[in-house]
Design goal:
By secondary structure, the protein is α/β, with parallel strands linked by helices. It is 40% helix and 18% strand. It folds into 2 domains: 225 residues, NAD(P)-binding Rossmann-like Domain (Rossmann fold, 3-Layer(aba) Sandwich); 90 residues, UDP-galactose 4-epimerase, domain 1 (Alpha-Beta Complex), CATH 3.90.25.10. Helix 9 crosses helix 11. Bound molecules: NADP nicotinamide-adenine-dinucleotide phosphate and ligand G4F.
């Protein structure tokens, strides 16, 4: 019989890619979607899998809803990807973020335990838990120091996952994933904001992209590679936690330069009256400006992951390079802008 997976956050970037690879493996997919005025199915549509998954109404805020869904579906595996996932918003909505990203995890774990504890559970943990990094590169042994309500909430969910594994013997594991991007990334995140902005500038629909901290560094990989690691973790006989990362770090500034290179523009940086700008070297036009509104009250300055454990035990490795990722994102956004093809 086909395995059954319940994916919370199926409408998001990772949920869509994960559905795609699990469908290829023959899984029956149930995707939890919360009630909104229009259900966000654009990514599933773009991957041409919308009619291959079963959508069920489930909000992480509502335990009775979670219980009914899990009781009815009886999934072999649950991938808990649902979250208020935007760090900046978590400073304005710390309580809502905790409700979903922290307590929401316990709601699912408790129901899995109550129903006999047979369902395997994956928790979407994050490199944002390392925050003000205590050592580099970061691996499974690195102490955590979260710098946002999002990071703090995720750290609670991380430890709850470990606690249910140790206390109740659940097959529960947590993937500490570093930033991963794709053409399906939400437009609020810096990489997609840049690639969409570059495409709009190339097609003369926009003049300038406004950013915040250009010096922040991230270990950016491709989401399609990272969802495979989630699946591999749940196939382990003994559940444990893994860091998933590329082992390379780049600044937001590097990302901007490389994204403009895709459309043959070279960026020159300058500071006027304390504000940094990026100009087109050839025309002198300002293509990037910086605005303090895009800065965070507390920043995670530097992330660099060490995925040695995942490489050794899961035989996982990233396939898409930093340059190829940027090129893939810019080209897809050029196509979207040219054809007015925005499905999410
Ligand atoms: P995403 O695109 O923002 O997707 C988040 C998903 O969660 C969406 O499907 C969203 O539904 C759903 N959701 C939000 N609140 C919910 C609620 N109350 N009840 C049910 N569903 C809810 O995020 P992503 O990039 O795919 O990331 C997936 C997971 O990995 C998240 O937990 C994120 O925190 C974590 N993570 C991501 C990264 C990364 O770099 N992408 C790195 C580490 C960890 P709507 O469509 O209705 O908004
Ligand atoms: O793209 P970001 O918003 O991603 P961030 O905060 O690293 O969070 C993402 O990765 C986490 C894993 O580490 C996930 F858990 C989380 O769910 C999410 O997927 O910002 C990246 C960096 C930050 O340092 C930010 O200050 O880019 C900097 N930045 C500079 N200007 C900007 C901007 N970020 C955004 N979103 N918008 C800007 O204009």
């Amino acid at each position: 019989m086909n395995k059954r997976a319940l994916i919370t956050g199926i409408s998001g970037q990772d949920g869509s890619y994960l559905s795609q690879i699990l469908l290829d493996k023959g899984y029956e997919i149930y995707g939890a979607v919360r009630r909104t005025s229009t259900i966000n199915t654009g990514r599933l549509f773009e991957l041409d899998i919308l009619n291959k998954v079963n959508l069920v109404a489930m909000d992480l805020a509502e335990i009775t809803n979670i219980q009914r869904v899990i009781e009815e579906i009886k999934p072999d595996e649950i991938y808990n990807l649902a979250a208020q996932s935007f760090v900046q918003t978590s400073f304005d909505q710390p309580i809502y973020t905790s409700e979903i990203d922290a307590i929401g995890v316990t709601r699912i774990l408790e129901i899995v335990k109550m129903l006999g504890g047979k369902t395997k559970f994956y928790q979407a943990s994050t490199s944002e838990m390392f925050g003000k990094v205590q050592s580099s590169p970061q691996n499974e042994e690195t102490p955590f120091y979260p710098r946002s309500p999002y990071g703090v909430s995720k750290l609670y969910g991380h430890w709850m996952t470990i606690n249910y594994r140790e206390a109740w013997n659940l097959h529960a594991c947590s993937g500490i994933l570093f930033n991963h991007e794709s053409p399906l990334r939400g437009v609020e995140f810096v990489t997609r904001k840049i690639t969409l902005g570059v495409a709009e500038i190339a097609k003369k629909k926009k003049q300038c992209i406004s950013l915040g901290n250009l010096n922040a560094k991230r270990d950016w990989g491709f989401a399609g590679d990272y969802v495979n690691a989630m699946w591999l973790m749940l196939q382990n006989e003994d559940p444990t936690d893994y860091v998933i990362a590329t082992g390379e770090t780049h600044s937001v500034r590097d990302f901007v330069e490389k994204a403009f290179n895709v459309i043959d523009i070279e960026i020159e940086w300058s500071i006027d009256n304390g504000v940094e700008f990026g100009r087109c070297k050839k025309s002198g036009n300002i293509l990037i400006d910086t605005n303090k509104d895009n800065n965070r009250p507390a920043e995670t300055d530097y992330l660099l992951g060490d995925a040695t454990k995942a490489k050794a035990e899961l035989k996982w490795k990233p396939e898409v390079s930093f340059n190829n990722l940027i090129e893939m994102m810019v080209k897809k956004d050029m196509d979207r802008v040219e054809n007015g093809n925005f499905s999410f």
